[in-house]
Amino acid sequence: MARAPSPEDIYDSARAEGERRLSSSALEQASTGFIAGVTIVFGIVALGVARELAAPDFASGVGQLVGALAFGVGLVFVVVGRTELFTENFFDPVAAAVARRRLVALWPLARLWLLVLVMNFVGGAVMAAVFTVHGTLPGRAHHTLALVAEEIAAKDGLATFTRGIAAGTLLTLLSYLLHAVGSAGSRMLLAYVVGFFLALGPFDHVVVSGLQLLFGIWLGAPVSYPDLGLNIVLSGAGNLLGGLLLMTLTHAVQVKGSGRGR
Q1: Is 33 exposed, middle or buried (0-12, 13-18, 19+ CB in 10 A)?
Q2: Nearest CA among 244, 17, 6, 228 for reference residue 124
Q3: Residue 208 contacts residue 48 (beta carbons within 8 Å)
Q4: Read out DSSP for the chain?
Q5: Helix 141-154 to helix 26-54 angle, to the nearest 10 degrees?
Q6: Per-residue pLDDT tens for 201-247?
Q7: Residue 252 backbone dihedrals phi, psi, to 5 degrees
Q8: Residue 24 vs residues 32, 70, 92: alpha-carbon distances, Å
Q9: What is the pTM of this model?
Q10: Phi/psi at 234 (nearest 5 deg)?
């Protein structure tokens, strides 16, 4: 039986992957961010279609559960396709930036975050424009997607921020756990479980929630671009706090505290 990797092994693997991402060209970073934005929209659409199909026959709670089960496939597409959502660039690249021990390492990290975040939205917006065309989706799926956007916009600012913390922690935990498994099947299962829990919350991932609000705006829901901007700020800040402080920093301290961190 293969030995389970130690926290130090996982951290070293993450640092190597983070170095690769920091050293990649701007074009590569932008393209991986764009593709991740495109593919995560399939999860958003799956949530809307599944929830719409379940809602006529079941209580709304069951519809939300079915929608969360459907959303998980979107995160599987992102992980297996080796593309990157904004929060996936917390644990690995930060580990690499810390290892460089130079302030100049902050610029490649900032460039990576900015490019991936922007291109996540660009790719997602392109795909959302396709799916918002009348007749593209079955039944009343557009109505359900608009309702999801309304629910997101209706939350107060503190709830958006705290749900952002949860989402950032959860997605960064996924980044960590992916280095603890070796098979494609294990990676798919981890991604699906995290995607399901993310949608079940629902927790506010800056890209996922932002694209859901964009769907609502384009589908005529009582949601505005200022709502979208506010969500990006609050959920993005929560993602950073949860991903960097609750996950990345604590794992780094764990490894350094063992005396084996290099």
Answers
A1: buried
A2: 228
A3: no
A4: -PPPPPHHHHHHHHHHHHHHHHHS-HHHHHHHHHHHHHHHHHHHHHHHHHHHHHTTTS-HHHHHHHHHHHHHHHHHHHHHTT---GGGGSHHHHHHHHHHTSGGGHHHHHHHHHHHHHHHHHHHHHHHHHHTSTTSSSTTHHHHHHHHHHHHHHS-HHHHHHHHHHHHHHHHHHHHHHTT--SHHHHHHHHHHHHHHHHHTT---HHHHHHHHHHHHHTT-S--HHHHHHHHHHHHHHHHIIIIIIIIIHHHHHHHHHT---
A5: 110
A6: 999 999 999 999 999 999 999 999 999 999 999 999 999 999 998 88
A7: -65, -40
A8: 11, 33, 14
A9: 0.92
A10: -70, -45
Distance in angstroms (rounded) separating the CA atoms of residues 157 and 180: 35
Amino acid at 151: E
Least confident of 30-34, 39-43, 210-214, 254-258: 254-258
Question: Which residues lie below 8 Å from residue 199, measured CB to CB, with a gap of 6+?
Answer: 43, 47, 67, 68, 71, 72
Amino acid identity, residue 162?
T
Q: Is 93 left (phi over 0), alpha (psi -120 to 50) or beta?
A: alpha
Q: How far apart are CA 89 and CA 99, in angstroms?
A: 15
pLDDT reading at 12 higher than 90: no
Confidence of residue 103 (pLDDT cuts 50, 70, 90): low
